[in-house]
Write a structure and sequence with these properties.
single chain; about 160 residues; mainly alpha; 2 strands; about 70% helix; about 10% strand; elongated
Length: about 160
């Protein structure tokens, strides 16, 4: 059973994380009000101008890299018989995801951003709030941590 978990969990967890990350890109890269609200809140709270407008792009690109390392690169590497490199790629993708999601969880919990973030807008004003982004960040963090644990031996000498 443990062997089955070790074999399939990195793929299932990687698909979950990648689905969350890739879906969010359409919001981060198009100027949607939700990421704008998130990153402007962090900018106003911290005084760091980099949070917006650069923040959504920086985080979005990091999420894209993580997704590629979790799924696309390992699939390509497995296709040419490079299992160890595939596992190393998944480890790297999970490490990037853990870093991004650590920041997300910390910012949701310890800044004015809060757990409830706007998910629906009407005439430029938040019309509905939800904890879904926070819960997705927590779940992604857990999946990334498990992938790191499962793939931790990928860098041991063969």
């Amino acid at each position: 059973m443990l062997s089955l978990l070790n074999r399939f969990f990195p793929w299932a967890g990687g698909l979950f994380i990648s689905a969350i990350f890739i879906d969010s890109l359409r919001f981060k890269f198009t100027g949607h009000p939700t990421p704008r609200h998130i990153f402007e809140t962090l900018k106003d709270w911290s005084g760091v101008g980099l949070f917006y407008p650069a923040g959504p792009w920086i985080i979005g690109l990091a999420e894209l890299v993580s997704s590629l390392l979790l799924i696309a690169a390992p699939l390509a590497l497995l296709a040419v018989g490079k299992t160890r490199l595939a596992h190393q790629a998944q480890f790297g993708g999970a490490l990037v995801a853990l870093g991004i999601m650590s920041g997300a969880v910390i910012f949701h919990l310890f800044t004015p951003l809060g757990i409830q973030t706007p998910v629906e807008w009407a005439n430029g004003v938040a019309a509905k709030y939800s904890p879904a982004l926070f819960y997705s960040a927590c779940a992604s963090w857990i999946f990334a941590a498990f992938i790191l644990y499962i793939r931790k031996d990928a860098f041991k000498s063969a």
